[in-house]
Structure formats: structure tokens, C-alpha cells
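Notes to self, RNA-guided endonuclease InsQ/TnpB family protein:
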Amino acid sequence: MIRAYKFLLRPTTRQQVALAAMLADHCSLYNGALQERRDAYRHTSKTSVRYGQQSAQLKDIRGFDPERQGRWSFSSQQATLRHLDKAFAAFFRRIKTGDKPGYPRFRGINWFDTVDFPKDGDGCRWDSTPHDPVTRVRFQGVGHVKVHQHRPVADRVKTVSVKREGRRWYVVLTAEQEQPQPLPPTGSVVGIDLGIANFLADSSGGFVAHPRHGRKAAAKLEAAQQAVARFPRVRRDQRTAHHRRAVEKVADLHRKVRRQRLDHAHKTALDLVRAHDVIAHEDLKIRNMVKAPVPRPDPDQPGGFLPNGAAAKAGLNRSISDAGWGVFLTILHVKAESAGREVIAVDPRNTSRTCPACGHVAAENRPTQEKFHCLSCGHHAHADTVGALNVLRAGLARRDAQPA
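result:
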């Protein structure tokens, strides 16, 4: 089992300069390799350049520019070229499937924030001085950087990555470890229904409040974005210090909201995994749920459009994105796997319209967002609780139907 760890780095001023230079030089290598592929396709009879060809050129590149490219790890530079190769592979895959292609783009220095080391000990070394009480990680060309290790790393470290987020630096480790011991069984099963008014409702009648981190930060974010808009549009290298600080404030606010969502998702998923053996949830297609409505051309007015509810749908899309359902479900599956729990995804159709008492299905069973009133048997309940009950029943039926 592969587990990832993310720790805050405490670099000195000189090490921060070296880390920034390492990112800049790997960004330059990425952009140069992308330019070579573009030129080869355009000017050499649509010739494709592969990763193996570009990796073979690294030795000459390092010898030609020892001050910028020669001082960094050869393996990390190969990893950067692999990232570009994966970007092109994804581009061609999307073309075949008919999706939006998304041709690989050149990276600005602020868009390139990660350098990977495929193997611990090759260009980097995790905790290379075990006799020292302070944990450190060594990077070639940077030195030993202090690490704020807030939890132990289990088993052997496989890969190491250094990442920049704003003004902070992080080290990301992946370690291979044995399957952890499962949690003791509780004999409890639960179905959950994700929503907007409440983050989730469970089949036992419990609710988890929607934290609405994005909405709470909207006022501060709006003020920060207005401060950025007051500056004239100039190139990045021509920005003043005040302009750069205004841009950094917007980015810091977005990062804070992202951390808050992650914290809430981790805590909610952990509570569910500890309390229940089987967890059933709706198999939501979130990407389709947040799509903008299709425009409706006005047949009586050429070039005009009829109302299509785009404003209301935009507000709903913001609420769905603010909830972070996709992140939560991903974390729930990972924690359940580590704890030996079972998570079942079921078809979400009619889960909120089906009466759990008599099975009657009708859209009129749900007169409002919160109320459920069955037209057939008169059953009353909270609509989200009804949805969670139906999700649980569908999940148990699917589990029993699976062959042993």
C-alpha cells in the first residue's frame, strides 16, 4: 500500500533562493522540451519527439549549461520530461475520446511549483542525518533543509517531491507500507445523502452541517480581487511590489479555503469510517452537475436568447463546488480502504423521490427541499434522511447481489 506524507519545510534564506532557482531551471527545461516537440511537428513533416529522445539529450544539455542545468539531479530532470510526455499522452487520449483536447502549454515560473525525485537517495535523501534530533531532507544543489515532521513516516520512503505553495515550501513523500490492521467491527451500516442545505444526512437521522467555507470567505476574496483590479495590466516582470502583494493575498485566501475544505472532509470521513462497517453513497457525476445550462435562442429575435435559468444555475454550481463532494468521496474511499471498511456507490436516480415505507416513486413526494410527504401512504420525514435510507437499501442490495 502506498501512502503519501506532506511536511512543511523550514529553509534558510539561502536555501529558499536555491529552491526557487531549482524550480526555475526545471521550468526552463520543461518549456524547452515542449518547444522542441512543437518545432519538430510543425517544421519536420509532423515528426513526433518522444521522451527517450529528449532524455538522451540531457547529458549534452547539462554539459552545455552547467551553471543552470548541470547542478541539479539528473533523475529529477528526467521526471520533468516524463511530466511533459504524460501531458502529450493525455492530449492524444482526449482527442481519441472526443473530449476537449487541451494542448500542453508553456509554464510560467509561477505555474511550475513541483520538482519530483523518483527515488529516495538519487538526488535527494530523506532524514540523511538520523543522529540529529531535527528531521532534515537533503536536495542536490540545495543542502540539508529542516522539516517540520508532525507525524512519523511508516516504512521505506520511495519518492520525494518538493513543492512551493505561495511563500511556503513543502516536501511530499510516498512510502510503501504493509496493509494496516483493520478497525474492529462495529456491526453498523449507514447510507449518506450529500446535499447543499446540509453537507450530508445519514440514514439514522443525523446531519453534518455545511461549513460553506467559500461563501464565508467571499467578502474578503472580493475585496482582494478588487485591489488587484485597480492596478494597470502589465507583464509579470513589470509588476510593482504592491501589485505582487495584492496578487499573493488573493492566492493565500484561495489556499486557506482549500485547506479548510480538506480539513472538514478528513474529519467527516474519519468519523464515518470509525463508526460504521459499511457506508453507501450516491455515485454522483459532479462534472455533469455543475455544467452551465444550454443557451436558448429566441426564434422571434435573431441573435437574441430566451431566459434559461443561467443565473440560478450559477449559484447552485457555486454551492456544489463549495461543498467539495468529490474531494470528500475520494478521502472517504481511501480511509475506508485503510480501515478495512466497505464503501458502496449506488445509482442516485429517484433516491429522494421513493417512499421508504411503501416504495411509491413520484416527484410530488418531495414538495419542498426539506420535506418528504408520500402521496400514497402519507409517510412524513426529512427529504435528505429519506434519500439516505434509500441509498443504504440500494447499497445493501448491491452488496448481497455480488458473487462471493
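- The first strand starts at residue 2 and ends at 10.
- The chain has a mean pLDDT of 91.
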